[in-house]
Amino acid sequence: MKRAPRRPVVITDAQQSPDDQLRRREIRYVIMMSFRALCLIAAAILVGTAAPMLWLWVPLCVAGMVLVPWLAVILANDRPPKKEHQLAYRLHHGDRDETGGPQALPPADPPKVIDAEQ
User: Fold this and answer.
1) What is the structure's pLDDT at 26?
2) Which residues of 57-84 are buried (b: 16+ CB within 10 A; e: fewer)?
3) Can you say whether the dihedral through the CA atoms of 42, 45, 47, 52 is positive or negative?
4) How many angstroms separate the CA atoms of 25 and 71, rounded?
5) pLDDT score for 36
6) CA-CA distances (angstroms) from residue 84 to 35, 87, 90?
7) In Å, what is the CA distance from 66 to each residue of 63, 76, 117?
């Protein structure tokens, strides 16, 4: 049985190293927590100056101070999905076995014929 040639591995298909993934998540976490600090400072300034539409801005800042840390922790602990779980990978490769060809269906049993005359 002749094997189908394997596709070459392209460097753009390689996953990021765990150190690079961790660094990217750390940077995202710091940026989001900085946004939280800005929400706190903005709320303090708005309350101190009695800004117009205070009823709108303070709840938005408080929501940012409450929701952003929660999202930051979730995103900091989230790793990229494995390649076989990514939609683009599935659309490109489809259901293929390790040789690169489509997976064969198991052989079907012959159909049963039911004759009422017998």
Assistant:
1) 93
2) bbeebeebbeebeeebeeebeeeeeeee
3) negative
4) 12
5) 94
6) 34, 8, 7
7) 5, 16, 76
